[in-house]
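sorry to bug you again but im stuck and you know this stuff better than me. what follows is a protein written twice so to speak, once as letters and once as structure tokens for the fold. id like you to explain what the token line says about the fold, in plain words if possible. anything you notice is useful, everything is just below.
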Amino acid sequence: MLSVYEGFFSGGARILHSDVVLGLREGGQYHRVLSVHGEVHREATRQRMEDDACYRALTAAGVGVGSLGRTFGASGDPAVFSGPELAETARAMADADVILSLKEQPLALLNQAGLPRRPVVVALHRSDPENQGPALDELKAAIADGTVAACVCCAESTRTAYEAAGIPGELLYVIPNGVDLFRFRPDAARRVALRAELGIPDTAPVVVFAARYAAMKNVPLFLRAARAWLRSEPDGHVLMCGAGMTSANPALAADIGAAFEGERPPAGRFHLLGVRRDMEVVYAGADVVALTSSWGEAAPLCLIEGMMCGAVPVATDVGDSAAIVTGHGIVTPPDPEAVARAWSEAVAGRTALAPALARSRERFSRTRMIASYAELIDRVHTRTTRSSLPEPR
């Protein structure tokens, strides 16, 4: 197996896909990874492949990771590849039986003429194909060429959106996201550790927002809700973590200034944590995991991870968020006052919702997800092998 990434940078799709690669390797498959970019500048953060947590997890497990060495955002046509880049790609593809493409963007590379023909399984992680630039056209071209054998949709909303965009329904398979239930679980010691680190009292209500700084996440809505909630909850604390969620991001600083109308957020109760490598600790220390996205979400990993650690999910109705949250938390309209009220309701109802969160664990199991990926890949490989055999006489 070869997985092709656009690049290594902080985000739920890369975390999820890297975990799939690790799980399939644990099950006996041989995997390699090729990244188009070796460095990415986005979310006001320079992200080197070698510094990325997914890269480190993959290489530590013995998965070979290579790169074409590009820098995301550099000048030049991103869809034009040099001879050496194509040669490196061909070498990486040569021993693979099946290619996994992390989202549709790497198809700009895999569609290049002269590369080995291998069946491609495309992992789709959004619900807005029309906002993916030329990537949707690359996906359609790869399907027309017969290269794409299947598309894995992480949510029903993804399948619906891509079918509406013209992708044949028979190629779309839904495999819901799952997480490591041993890593993501309620843990009193982690809860104490996180709160001690940040100076948060044991009984203080805590809301966590785990997202990269991007327009689809609707950070301004979250910040306006945070201002309203911090005013109504004098002991409350708000945590923001993810790429770009630091004071060094001027766009975030401007959003904070606008949301708080020029005032400073309450000292010691508003925490910008940036990228964290210990999200299981952050979620265990929180009471609410919040998401205020406006578009693009499919099955947000933050909601699942937070829920499995005991935090109550509160989210806007985007993608499959409502399906994930219903019965376990609260779905809100995109209104800051309504969001703030929902956070308080979630904190007050956390104990009552705990049994429902516990009963949902198997539904969000990594084991279930990995088994589904393995079954689909085996099916694609078997079908491709049979179709390549000579016709019987």
Observations:
- The first strand starts at residue 2 and ends at 5.
- The chain has two domains: 2-178+366-388, 188-363.
